[in-house]
């Protein structure tokens, strides 16, 4: 069964539309695993156009085209061919409705939330595969997946972003790495400045000594 769908702008992860009929959200397991959909979306600009992340009870699929990424979370045993077919249908319809300029100039999250009605209708159809016989050729879809298998993401690819580990380690000082710092030789200008400073100090001391002698 298709559980959740999300459409994002690939370059910055801005959510553009999503499934909003959360009647089955009473399932805590679904809520906990939905976070991985957004985490996979953060990788869209760094990974191939077709990806899969396998979780314990669910599978997340993603395709990217023309700067937009389409993601779906399905139950573990839902056929991969149907999941990618579902995403392809969303992609074709979304591209017809919204051109690249509208996507690139979007400023607020879920600016195209009205597309949810199409997500909902398509999800209902794909959750009854017996009704898709005349619409989807599973044999051809499975052959395509064998010839062009999706990139397999691992949990380690996305989990560090949950607590920001990757962001933090990028800014930590690298202690004990590389050769010790070397002292640079002083330039002639530096030597002159040092000698001038010493001369001023000596003159100051001489003047203080003269004042002390007069006082005595």
From TrEMBL:
Similarity section: Belongs to the synaptobrevin family.
Membrane topology: Single-pass type IV membrane protein
GO MF terms held by the record: SNAP receptor activity
Physiological role: SNARE involved in targeting and fusion of ER-derived transport vesicles with the Golgi complex as well as Golgi-derived retrograde transport vesicles with the ER.
Source organism of this protein record: Rhodnius prolixus
Any single GO BP term: protein transport
The protein's name in its UniProt record: Longin domain-containing protein
Transmembrane spans: none
GO cellular component: endoplasmic reticulum membrane; Golgi apparatus
Subcellular location: Endoplasmic reticulum membrane; Golgi apparatus, cis-Golgi network membrane; Melanosome
Chief location: endoplasmic reticulum
Keyword Nucleus: no
Keywords per UniProt: Coiled coil, Membrane, Protein transport, Transport
Lineage, uppermost ranks: Eukaryota, Metazoa, Ecdysozoa, Arthropoda, Hexapoda
CDD domains: Longin
Domain of life, source organism: Eukaryota
One Pfam family here: Longin
């Amino acid at each position: 069964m298709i559980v959740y769908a999300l459409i994002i702008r690939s370059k910055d992860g801005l959510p553009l539309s999503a499934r909003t009929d959360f009647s089955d959200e009473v399932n805590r397991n679904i809520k906990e695993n939905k976070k991985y959909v957004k985490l996979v979306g953060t990788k869209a600009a760094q990974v191939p156009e077709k990806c899969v992340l396998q979780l314990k009870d669910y599978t997340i699929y993603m395709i990217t085209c023309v700067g937009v990424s389409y993601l779906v979370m399905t139950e573990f045993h839902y056929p991969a061919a149907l999941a990618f077919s579902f995403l392809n249908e969303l992609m074709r319809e979304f591209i017809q409705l919204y051109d690249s300029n509208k996507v690139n100039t979007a400023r607020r999250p879920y600016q195209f939330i009205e597309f949810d009605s199409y997500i909902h209708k398509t999800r209902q159809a794909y959750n009854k595969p017996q009704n898709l016989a005349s619409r989807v050729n599973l044999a051809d879809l499975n052959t395509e997946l064998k010839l062009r298998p999706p990139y397999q993401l691992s949990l380690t690819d996305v989990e560090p972003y949950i607590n920001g580990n990757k962001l933090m380690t990028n800014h930590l000082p690298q202690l004990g790495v590389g050769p010790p710092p070397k002292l640079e030789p002083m330039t002639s200008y530096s030597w002159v400045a040092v000698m001038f400073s010493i001369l001023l100090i000596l003159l100051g001391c001489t003047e203080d000594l003269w004042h002390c002698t007069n006082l005595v």
